[in-house]
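#lab-general

N.A. 3:47 PM
ok so I finally got the sequence cleaned up, no stray characters, all 139 residues accounted for. can someone with queue access submit it? mine expired

B.Y. 3:52 PM
send it over

N.A. 3:53 PM
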Amino acid sequence: MECTVRWVEGRTFLAETGSGHLVAMDGAPEAGGRNLAPRPMELLLAGAGGCTAFDIVMILEKGRQAVRGCEVRLEAERAPSDPKVFTRIRFHYVVRGRGLDADRVERAVKLSAEKYCSASIMLGKTAELEHTWEIVEEA
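B.Y. 4:20 PM
back already:
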Protein backbone atom coordinates (compact mmCIF):
# COMPACT_ATOMS: atom_id res chain seq x y z
CA MET A 1 0.00 0.00 0.00
CA GLU A 2 1.29 3.46 -0.77
CA CYS A 3 0.21 7.07 -0.76
CA THR A 4 1.75 10.39 -1.75
CA VAL A 5 0.77 13.57 0.07
CA ARG A 6 1.56 16.92 -1.53
CA TRP A 7 1.39 20.35 0.04
CA VAL A 8 -0.88 22.61 -2.01
CA GLU A 9 -0.81 25.91 -0.08
CA GLY A 10 -1.38 27.24 3.42
CA ARG A 11 -2.35 24.10 5.35
CA THR A 12 -4.02 22.33 2.42
CA PHE A 13 -2.63 18.96 1.34
CA LEU A 14 -3.67 16.55 -1.41
CA ALA A 15 -3.16 12.81 -0.99
CA GLU A 16 -3.02 10.47 -3.96
CA THR A 17 -3.60 6.89 -2.90
CA GLY A 18 -1.96 3.85 -4.41
CA SER A 19 -5.27 3.00 -6.06
CA GLY A 20 -5.21 6.38 -7.83
CA HIS A 21 -7.78 8.29 -5.75
CA LEU A 22 -7.41 11.83 -4.45
CA VAL A 23 -8.24 13.04 -0.95
CA ALA A 24 -7.92 16.65 0.18
CA MET A 25 -7.03 17.65 3.75
CA ASP A 26 -6.92 21.09 5.34
CA GLY A 27 -6.31 22.69 8.71
CA ALA A 28 -8.47 24.82 10.91
CA PRO A 29 -8.25 28.59 10.34
CA GLU A 30 -6.53 29.07 13.71
CA ALA A 31 -3.76 26.75 12.45
CA GLY A 32 -3.38 28.59 9.14
CA GLY A 33 -5.86 26.49 7.18
CA ARG A 34 -8.83 27.62 5.16
CA ASN A 35 -11.23 24.91 6.38
CA LEU A 36 -11.61 23.57 2.82
CA ALA A 37 -11.43 19.86 3.63
CA PRO A 38 -11.41 17.40 6.52
CA ARG A 39 -8.56 17.38 9.03
CA PRO A 40 -6.12 14.46 8.78
CA MET A 41 -7.30 13.04 12.13
CA GLU A 42 -10.92 13.21 10.93
CA LEU A 43 -9.93 11.10 7.94
CA LEU A 44 -8.22 8.61 10.23
CA LEU A 45 -11.44 8.28 12.23
CA ALA A 46 -13.53 8.06 9.04
CA GLY A 47 -11.21 5.35 7.72
CA ALA A 48 -11.79 3.26 10.83
CA GLY A 49 -15.55 3.73 10.42
CA GLY A 50 -15.42 2.72 6.77
CA CYS A 51 -13.26 -0.30 7.53
CA THR A 52 -15.58 -1.67 10.21
CA ALA A 53 -18.78 -0.90 8.25
CA PHE A 54 -17.32 -2.80 5.29
CA ASP A 55 -16.73 -5.80 7.59
CA ILE A 56 -20.22 -5.70 9.10
CA VAL A 57 -21.98 -5.65 5.73
CA MET A 58 -19.77 -8.40 4.31
CA ILE A 59 -20.15 -10.67 7.35
CA LEU A 60 -23.93 -10.24 7.46
CA GLU A 61 -24.32 -10.79 3.71
CA LYS A 62 -22.19 -13.94 3.87
CA GLY A 63 -24.44 -15.07 6.72
CA ARG A 64 -27.46 -14.61 4.42
CA GLN A 65 -28.87 -11.78 6.50
CA ALA A 66 -31.12 -9.28 4.70
CA VAL A 67 -28.99 -6.26 5.59
CA ARG A 68 -30.11 -3.07 3.83
CA GLY A 69 -28.04 -0.45 5.60
CA CYS A 70 -25.18 0.02 8.00
CA GLU A 71 -24.22 3.28 9.64
CA VAL A 72 -21.39 3.69 12.13
CA ARG A 73 -21.41 6.76 14.35
CA LEU A 74 -18.00 7.45 15.85
CA GLU A 75 -17.10 9.73 18.75
CA ALA A 76 -13.45 10.14 19.66
CA GLU A 77 -11.56 11.77 22.48
CA ARG A 78 -7.95 12.86 22.11
CA ALA A 79 -5.07 13.36 24.50
CA PRO A 80 -4.85 16.96 25.78
CA SER A 81 -1.19 17.40 24.81
CA ASP A 82 1.05 16.35 21.92
CA PRO A 83 0.96 13.83 20.50
CA LYS A 84 -2.81 14.21 20.60
CA VAL A 85 -3.58 10.57 19.92
CA PHE A 86 -7.06 9.15 20.20
CA THR A 87 -7.57 7.95 23.77
CA ARG A 88 -11.18 6.75 23.51
CA ILE A 89 -13.35 5.91 20.50
CA ARG A 90 -17.00 4.94 20.64
CA PHE A 91 -18.42 3.02 17.66
CA HIS A 92 -22.21 2.85 17.48
CA TYR A 93 -23.62 0.72 14.66
CA VAL A 94 -27.10 1.19 13.28
CA VAL A 95 -27.83 -1.87 11.15
CA ARG A 96 -30.95 -1.84 9.00
CA GLY A 97 -32.65 -4.76 7.39
CA ARG A 98 -35.44 -7.29 7.43
CA GLY A 99 -35.56 -9.97 10.09
CA LEU A 100 -31.95 -9.49 11.13
CA ASP A 101 -30.78 -11.93 13.78
CA ALA A 102 -29.48 -9.99 16.81
CA ASP A 103 -26.93 -12.70 17.62
CA ARG A 104 -25.50 -12.51 14.10
CA VAL A 105 -25.27 -8.71 14.25
CA GLU A 106 -23.49 -8.94 17.60
CA ARG A 107 -21.14 -11.58 16.17
CA ALA A 108 -20.38 -9.39 13.14
CA VAL A 109 -19.53 -6.44 15.39
CA LYS A 110 -17.25 -8.62 17.54
CA LEU A 111 -15.50 -10.17 14.53
CA SER A 112 -14.85 -6.76 13.04
CA ALA A 113 -13.61 -5.35 16.36
CA GLU A 114 -11.42 -8.30 17.31
CA LYS A 115 -10.25 -9.84 14.03
CA TYR A 116 -10.93 -8.04 10.76
CA CYS A 117 -10.91 -4.24 11.02
CA SER A 118 -7.21 -3.43 10.77
CA ALA A 119 -7.85 0.30 11.20
CA SER A 120 -9.78 0.11 14.46
CA ILE A 121 -7.56 -2.65 15.87
CA MET A 122 -4.54 -0.43 15.20
CA LEU A 123 -6.23 2.57 16.85
CA GLY A 124 -7.01 0.31 19.79
CA LYS A 125 -3.30 0.33 20.62
CA THR A 126 -3.66 3.88 22.00
CA ALA A 127 -7.41 4.24 22.52
CA GLU A 128 -10.03 2.51 24.60
CA LEU A 129 -12.62 1.23 22.12
CA GLU A 130 -16.32 0.82 22.85
CA HIS A 131 -18.75 -0.90 20.46
CA THR A 132 -22.53 -0.67 20.71
CA TRP A 133 -25.16 -1.53 18.14
CA GLU A 134 -28.84 -1.46 17.34
CA ILE A 135 -31.05 -2.99 14.70
CA VAL A 136 -33.65 -1.01 12.80
CA GLU A 137 -36.28 -3.23 11.19
CA GLU A 138 -37.28 -2.19 7.70
CA ALA A 139 -40.51 -3.16 6.01
